[in-house]
Amino acid sequence: MDVTRRAFLRAGNGAIVASALGFNLHRAYAQSRQLKIARTTETRSTCPYCSVSCGIIIHTLGDKAKNVTPQVVHVEGDPDHPINRGTLCPKGSSLYQDILNERRLLKPQVRRPGSDHWEDIPWDQAFEEVARHIKKTRDETFIATDSQGRRVNRCESIAWNGGCTDTNEFNYLVVKTMRSLGVTYLENQARV
Amino acid sequence: MTNGWVDIRNTDMMLIMGGNPAENHPCGFKWAIEAKRQRNAQMIVVDPRFTRTAATADMFLQIRAGADIAFLGGVLRYAIENQRVAKEYLVNFTNAAFIVNENFKLPEDGLFSGFNETTKTYDRSTWNYDSADHIQPAAGAPAALPANISMDPTLEHPRCVYQLLKQQYSRYTPEVVERITGIPKDQFLKAADLFTSIRRDGAMTMTATIIYAVGWTQHSFGTQIIRTAAMLQLLLGNVGRAGGGVNALRGHSNIQGATDVAGIFDNLPGYLKVPIPADKDFDGWMARITTKPAKPHDWDSFNYWSNTPKFAVSLLKAMYGDAAKKENGWAYDYLPKVDREYSWAHIFDDMYKGHVKGLIAFGMNAVAIGPNSSKNIDALKKADFLVVCDIYPEETSDFWKSPGVSPEEMKKIPTEVYRLPGAGFAEKDGTFVNSARWLQWKWAAVPPPGDAKLDQEILARIFLKVRELYRKEGGQFPDPILNLSWNYTIPENPSLAEVARELNGRALADVEDKASGQIVKAGQQVPGFAFLRDDGSTLCGNWIWSGSWPEAGPLMQRRVPDDPSGLGIHPGWGWSWPMNRRVLYNRASCDVAGKPWDPSRKQIWWSEGAKKWVGNDVPDFKADSPPKDHMGPFIMNPEGVGRLFAPLAAFADGPFPEFYEPMESPIANPLHPARSNNPVVKKYTSEMDKYGTPAEGYTIVCTTYRLTEHYHYWTKNNPMNVQLVPEPFVELPAELAADLGIKGGDHVKVTSARSFYLAKAMVTRRIRPMTIDGKKVYQIGIPIHFGYRGIQEDLGKTSRSLTNSLSPTVTDPNSYTPEFKGFLVKVEKA
Q: Does some domain include residue B324?
């Protein structure tokens, strides 16, 4: 039986194809579409963009054993999620490129006063220097009492700006640490 | 949101205004479409631009940016004039019947009673109810609500809230609405008729929702726009009901959570008000912020904020552990005392003036966000240090090499800048709160790339290093730093699951709930905030999230997709605050007798057999309070009812919203030209803060907006999104473009009193010329998403200018949100 490619495709789910080839190709097509995510680990997450909270599934290869770094191969909407029901917008659909992005910052850097360039700095040194800046600034400017002699315990010279995708738990650690330093300029994307 | 995303499908009528969900919340907007398809719901869209949301609407009205209160005030007037009100709801569930102080004055001349011209603030003591006991406040005592409020349930008393409301909005006639908003009178009347038609002949079964986003918040009167909407919803009896409510879409994945946990200067977690210097001690603080019931004698009020001390002590126990004792007022001294505004715009104003010397920014691009970006850049040039934690190179950490900084100037910029690589969303676990108050846990899929670290590790290691320095060297008031409770298993990298358990709270000694007899043993997670105590026997990081991680486990990790009631409640998916209640104030979904207004959409109801409130949702109410006790549904207000009139200190600029012009406006306010702007809004005074006028040539109204294809200043690093919208543009009405000889694709320069912006013109019919108070006025729109760091920016394919270099530093006096919408510019061919 002579079957052209076009006729073969047009035959669709007809029995001709199955009988001509002796097996049903449908399963084979479905199989080939599945392969990309067949052996992936599914991690449930939430889209970091707007506040709809679309559920997403991040597919990674690599079995999460020690010393194995999973590799993201696909991100899609979570069909179980009651709000987005598997759909994603143009931003959510491109999240794969947000996770795997060659522009990501990969190492701590510092720009020294008056300098015209970034230089690398080891993490430990960065922590030391930042902590020293904080302590020095706080100690030099701390306001223990106001003009009426009332105890106010404020550090008005250091400000904190918190972002829109900081988690609840992280934000709470911010409140704990910054309020304990006496920081009053405590603000977040929530304001603007 | 009082309601939720899926709940929108229950509505019969939508007013979408100050938001563009089809483009900015696309996957949530499906529920608005679902309501249209399944319930034949009508949709009214009011926006300065013909957006894609407008394209799906039954009625679209083009409004001048910032004229929203005039429109909504007009609808209030229409509803009252045509008796399209929910009478039983209004009398019993709002303060419509309450009698107001005789010295209170409405703002016919633009000012309410009590204005002080020198301080530009109000003495708000007349913004109060009358006492039914005729008790006058003692001289010098702080103003307080009367314990027994005078009322007239017939709503006829000339000083009852309803009559004052009627009088206040009697000035907002269709003609005045047209003059201010630019919406032709006949179109306005059609919209007002359509929206209020759900209450035709007093019918109560249908509901309407109001949906908004930053198009309402970003004004120098944004809070009052939202209040006008809330008042309209109270008047129509839509709050607390499926398919109703006042629904803030919010813009980002976790700003609802950031607000809840108080990553902002004026609150502590769970909306506890911060202590002020005048609070002598812990008890003084509690006395000021713990509300007392204030209600008509025959009614009941839950007054839930009477529990404030339990929440505050539990928070201080969570923060300072054993160092928080009854004897030291639960370490009250450790908290900084706030006596003025420390909001976003003030940070950069005070940095510009040299007072703020260091800034730590985690995932927050202050330079691009603005307002008045050039001022923010110049402020950073004066700082000693800047710490930025982010995942991409962005404008703020690169401020010292922003466009226009010469090599000579760079040498003089003393700021030491640390750019620390943080983790992206897929690399972190923890919870976000969506705009429907749902807490949902997300799991980490991959570790951070390269040497990047988890944000909590970066913060913890900075803090522990600071603590080590104070321990070794001493310094100013080290006590709160040394005593901060930080008992995480890995202190340098706290597990967010451990932190989430602390946020829920646990018992430090055995705690018994008297009503149920349930005992929570010391060390166990508390089941909810009803178990929190003010004697130090419980700790809890954020009382409104208490119940999210009880002994049973993390409820915000639940993934049961079922919706047994069919109302979109999904009670087993994640967890919503408070106590998994999905629609706030849902007691108001029933009539006074406790029967649902709409038998086909039963949320909760009073069960006479069980002697308690039961239903498909968790009652947001005292479960055993019978309808005959007449407890108000609005349990967080000391009155127990919804506030059409917001008494005393509730708002800085008036107990009723009044229309004021934006700080920069093409006309003088037609209601009271001598009081054009919000009288309590203060201008900033640095040399970088200039405000433009039509006389100086700034005649075009500019509004900033967002695109579907881009997310803030983030996706300009993402190749796919950059491919979709590769470069910035300015959206111009075709008529304005013709006037200026500009064609689509031409380069244009937009100038405000502060700075300028360069981009290509996108000539459109989506914005039409308007007639405002008899004058022809053009509006333009500019997407915000571009800057000087990004794929296209780094290739030199954009002008590398910032939209927010145009916007003014001026803020709402209640929320302190800047006015990014509706400022003045001029446009020319570049």
A: yes
B166 and B219 part of one domain: yes
Q: Could you please state the CATH topology (level 3) that the domain comprising A39-103 is classified under.
A: Phosphorylase Kinase; domain 1 (3.30.200)
Q: Domain boundary at B539, B555, B571, which?
A: B555
Asked, for residue B657, whether it belongs to a domain, the answer is no
Q: Is the domain of B308 the same as that of B177?
A: no
Q: State whether A103 and B390 contact (CB < 8 Å).
A: no
Helix (H) or strand (E) holding A16, with range, is helix A15-21
Do the chains contact at B356 and A134, CB–CB below 8 Å?
A: no
- B771 neighbors B777 (Cβ within 8 angstroms): yes
Contacting residues of B for A94, CB less than 8 Å apart: 715, 718, 720-721
Report the pLDDT value the prediction gives residue B138, as an integer from 0 to 100.
75
Residue B614 within a domain: no
What is the full DSSP assignment across B167-236? Answer: HHHTT--HHHHHHHH---HHHHHHHHHHHHGGGGGG--S--EEEEE-HHHHSSTTHHHHHHHHHHHHHHT
> What pLDDT, on the 0 to 100 scale, is given for residue B134?
83
CATH number at residue B113: 3.40.228.10
Q: Do B430 and A151 touch (CB under 8 A)?
A: no
Distance, in Å, from the CA atom of B74 to the CA atom of B95, rounded to the nearest integer, reads: 21
Strand partners, B131: B149
Q: How far apart are CA B231 and CA B243, in angstroms?
A: 17
Task: State whether B309 and B394 are in the same domain.
Answer: no
Whichever domain contains B431, its CATH number is 3.40.50.740
pLDDT tens across B328-358, in order? Answer: 999 999 999 998 999 999 999 999 999 999 9
Q: Is the pLDDT of residue A6 over 60?
A: no
Among chain B residues, CA nearest to A117: B401
Do B285 and B400 fall into the same domain? no
Please count the structural domains in chain B.
4
Domain membership flag for residue B562: no
Residue where a domain stops, chosen among B431, B457, B483:
B483
Nearest to B656 by CA among B148, B230, B18: B230
| Range(s) of the domain holding residue B302 | 265-338+493-555
What confidence score (pLDDT) does residue B804 get?
Answer: 98
Q: Which of B418, B275, B381 is nearest to A112 (CA)?
A: B418
A45 and B425 within 8 Å at the Cβ level: the answer is yes
Q: Are A91 and B710 in contact (CB under 8 A)?
A: yes
Predicted confidence at residue A12, as pLDDT, reads: 43
Which one of A90, A160, A180 has the shortest CB-CB distance to B721? A90
Residue B151 near residue B296, CB atoms below 8 Å: yes
From the list A90, A162, A180, the residue facing B481 with the nearest CB is A180
Q: Quick: pLDDT tens for A60-72.
A: 998 767 778 889 9
pLDDT at A134 over 50: yes
DSSP 3-state assignment of A44?
strand
ipTM reported for the complex, 2 dp? 0.97
What confidence score (pLDDT) does residue A13 get?
A: 43
* Structural domain boundaries in chain A: 1-38, 39-103, 109-188
Report CB contact under 8 Å: A94, B715: yes
Residues of B in contact with A66 (CB under 8 A): none
**Which residue in chain A is spatially nearest to B27 when comparing CA positions?**
A84
**What pTM was estimated for this model as a whole?**
0.95
Same domain, B411 and B518: no
Same domain, yes or no: B313 and B348: no
Residues B309, B246, single domain; the answer is: no
- My answer on whether B167 and B193 are in the same domain is yes
Contact B23, B217 (CB under 8 A): no
- Kindly list the averaged pLDDT for each block of 10 residues, start to end, along chain B of length 830: 98 98 98 98 98 98 98 98 98 98 97 97 97 82 92 98 98 98 98 98 96 97 98 98 97 96 96 97 97 96 98 98 98 96 97 98 96 98 98 98 97 98 98 98 97 98 98 98 98 98 98 91 98 98 98 98 97 98 98 98 97 98 98 98 96 98 98 97 95 98 97 97 97 98 98 97 98 98 98 96 97 97 97
